Each structure stands twice: as C-alpha cells, then as structure tokens.
Amino acid sequence: MPKINASTVAEHRARQREALVGAAIDILVTEGAAAVTPAAVGARAGLARSSVYQYFDSSAALLATITEEAFRRSNQALTEAMAAADGPLERVEAFFGESLRLGAEGAHRPAAALMGAGLPSACQQRLMELHLEQVEPFRAAVRELDVPEPALTADLIAGMLHTALAAVENGAALETVTRRTLALVRRCLTRSGGTGRAADAGR
C-alpha cells in the first residue's frame, strides 16, 4: 500500500478513494469499460484488491462513480467560467471557451468513453441526465437571446462545439479553434456579430 500523508483517517481514506477513481478513469480511457475491475483498478492505484472493496464492491460501482466524476469536475469549471460572464452571449462564449479548454486537457475523454461503452441501462440513463444538466446553463443563455427558435439554435451551435472539440482533441491549436468557434457563435447569435467584452477578448 502506498504511503499517503494525511492528518486524519478520514482524509487518508478520501485520498485513497480519489486515487482509485483516478486509476479507474485512466483504465476506462486507455482500455475501455470492460477493463475497469476492482483488481485492475487496485493494481493501477497500488492497492490490494481487498482494499478496493472497502470503497467499491463491484465493477458496476466503479463505473457508476466514474459516470458522476466525469461530469463533476467539468461542471465546476464551466459554472465558474459562466459566473464571471456578464450577459447571455458572454455566458454562451464562456461555456464554449471553457469546454474547449477542458477538451484540450482531456477532461471530456471519460464521458466520451462511457457513452460508447455499452453501459447498463441505469448508467446510460444517468449519463444522459448528467449531460443534459451540463448543457442546460448554455441552453438557458441562448433562450435569453433574441434569436428565432432558441432550442433548435442551441442544438445547431452545440454541433459546432462538438466539431471544435474533435479538432482540438485531434491536435488543432486551442487558441485558433477557440477564436474561430467564438466568431461563428457570435455570428449565429447576434445580428451584428457581437461586440461584448467576451467577444472582444476572443479576437
């Protein structure tokens, strides 16, 4: 068992659990969902399988936790980015910009791996719920703007985000992709192309 410096037993256990979750995510991304087992996760984290069972009693429990974790960290970053924006257009741009930054860091890979993993129906349903929760602030910002058919408009520009994320994850320069994507978003959501503070920063 690796030595973990912690001032309390609770902190020690929290760090062990975090190490196991990190190991499970790494295995998911590199080897697929079927490889996420208590034995494999314990080996990757440097813990005995018996220790893993103190936190997760099955592969299903590990996958359920990864499902939550895949969104929790990204959601926190997205919430903070949007909170710093002044208006609805700026919030949309903040959502796109932060999503692309997270994509460049690989933060979306666990969720993408889960979506194609053939998970049990309960996990699939929860994954969809978490995805809808994640994009709702962006969709709400679009609804505040004076655009026709806001739900459809949100769906269409979300397609641009997915394409931009794929470009970044395939090695395109983050700054270039972000600048071009935000320019297209402004063109779609404003009659004049947008001149807000976030828009100016993206030029």
TrEMBL record:
<feature type="DNA-binding region" description="H-T-H motif">
    <location>
        <begin position="37"/>
        <end position="56"/>
    </location>
</feature>
<feature type="domain" description="HTH tetR-type">
    <location>
        <begin position="14"/>
        <end position="74"/>
    </location>
</feature>
<dbReference type="InterPro" id="IPR009057">
    <property type="entry name" value="Homeodomain-like_sf"/>
</dbReference>
<protein>
    <submittedName>
        <fullName>TetR family transcriptional regulator</fullName>
    </submittedName>
</protein>
<dbReference type="InterPro" id="IPR001647">
    <property type="entry name" value="HTH_TetR"/>
</dbReference>
<keyword id="KW-0805">Transcription regulation</keyword>
<keyword id="KW-0804">Transcription</keyword>
<dbReference type="GO" id="GO:0003677">
    <property type="term" value="F:DNA binding"/>
</dbReference>
<dbReference type="Pfam" id="PF00440">
    <property type="entry name" value="TetR_N"/>
</dbReference>
<keyword id="KW-0238">DNA-binding</keyword>
